[in-house]
Design brief:
Helices cover about 65% and strands about 0% of the residues. It has 20 helices and two strands. It has a two-stranded antiparallel sheet with strand order 1-2. The longest helix is centred in the N-terminal third of the chain and has 35 residues.
């Protein structure tokens, strides 16, 4: 190609801080998506929203939170990942090799480790008499090498890992996306968006929503490298954020029990509106929380919240429902209680590991959220200085440590 070389897009301290907090909010919101207890997400997976909401107060509250207000994280995180992959990429094999080497540590290794951990936990709990009654399928009775490999590599027990599976495919096809994203620009997103909107067949390895928003992130990165200004006037964010909240309430109240194709299309439109609302409304409504103690405490554990929530969350839901029953108030108690307890347990264990077993913590998180280091000692496994310190903290290349793939990471 004879197109001129594009300079890398430098990530400012303000954008770095924005990426960090948006990512943390996203992975926390995912816990509430999966806390939905009116259907079995453990059996059906996470990728599709529940288009038939339950009646009553519990049905309204859970649908509003899990299927409306928190349905945007995956789309946002794919867009962020696409942006970070392409914001400084030159279309040469040496640069792709550099990117792939970094993603091997930050995405592929954690995927395999967490898939194996969740499978071991699943097998141990199913083998114990007191916990085996909570399982609806007998894995040992149907065990085979193929089923074991399927649970490890294709359909992990920890079903949220589908995000990393599709992300790996997005990285793999990145060389095929660069020139369409650069030359066709916004049109490059259209084929994948059409497949997503039409509900084309997909697997955990090629979720069309993921490919759509990853490509969108790539286009945004290349547009910014051209010098194109993409930020609208501040009033847009101030308007679109409350408009999105109102749309979520109206959709939940009027359409949560409608399963027609047009309602599904509106739901996906609501998801796109959410991405715009969170991103453009950030400065007006969210940025004020950047320096709060709670955010500073949670920032190093974003990836852990994403990766370690299952099967813990499912176990807590099933135990809670067995103990409290299925009345509307019991459903709500289990809904909020299981989500909050999952966050407390994961962050608590993460804090102990980060303090007493930093090497294991680094492997399980792909080097994210490590203990604070000074600039001279900072290495590829840690950006903890950025996690708990100033937003302008950088890695060894002088590039800001920014958010990716559901948590804080080094941009390789």
């Amino acid at each position: 190609m004879s197109a001129p070389r594009l300079d890398r897009y430098r990530i400012s301290a303000a954008l770095s801080a924005k990426l960090r907090l948006v990512t943390l909010v996203a992975v926390t919101a995912v816990v509430f998506v999966h806390a939905y207890n009116l259907t079995s997400r453990f059996g059906s997976g996470e990728n599709a929203a529940e288009m038939r909401g339950a009646p009553g107060a519990a049905g309204f509250v859970e649908y509003l939170i899990s299927q409306a207000l928190t349905r945007w994280p995956a789309a946002m995180l794919f867009a962020i990942s696409g942006f970070l992959f392409f914001h400084n990429l030159q279309p040469y094999w040496a640069d792709y090799r550099r990117k792939y080497a970094g993603r091997l540590r930050t995405v592929v290794v954690p995927l395999l480790l967490w898939s194996a951990i969740s499978l071991v936990v699943y097998l141990v709990l199913q083998s114990l008499p007191w916990s085996s009654t909570y399982f609806t399928t007998d894995f040992f009775g149907e065990a085979s090498l193929w089923r074991l490999a399927d649970k490890l590599f294709l359909a992990p027990v920890a079903y949220p890992l589908w995000f990393l599976q599709t992300l790996i495919v997005c990285f793999a096809i990145a060389p095929l996306l660069y020139w369409p994203a650069r030359t066709a620009r916004w049109i490059a997103v259209a084929p994948f968006a059409l497949l997503w909107v039409l509900g084309a067949p997909a697997t955990d390895w090629n979720d069309w929503k993921g490919v759509t928003f990853f490509t969108l992130g790539a286009v945004i990165a290349l547009e910014r490298r051209r010098g194109v200004k993409l930020s609208p006037s501040p009033w847009v964010g101030r308007l679109v954020f409350p408009a999105w909240l109102l749309a979520c309430v109206l959709y939940t109240a009027l359409l949560r029990d409608v399963s027609a194709a047009w309602a599904d299309g509106l739901h996906k439109g609501l998801m796109c509106l959410a991405v715009a609302a969170v991103w453009f409304g950030y400065e007006a409504y969210i940025s004020r929380f950047e320096t709060t103690r709670l955010v500073t405490l949670l920032l190093p554990y974003g990836f852990l919240i994403f990766a370690a929530q299952e099967p813990l969350l499912t176990i807590l839901k099933r135990v809670g429902l067995k103990v409290l029953g299925s009345s509307p108030w019991a459903l709500l108690a289990v809904y909020f209680g299981s989500a909050l307890l999952t966050l407390v347990v994961v962050v608590g264990i993460g804090a102990l590991m980060r303090r007493h077993a930093p090497a294991a913590f680094a492997w399980l998180t792909g080097g994210r959220g490590g203990p604070k280091k000074n600039a001279a000692a900072a290495g590829p496994a840690g950006e903890g200085a950025g996690a708990a310190g100033p937003a302008e903290a950088t890695d060894l290349t002088g590039e800001p440590a920014v958010a990716e793939a559901g948590a804080l990471s080094q941009e390789a």
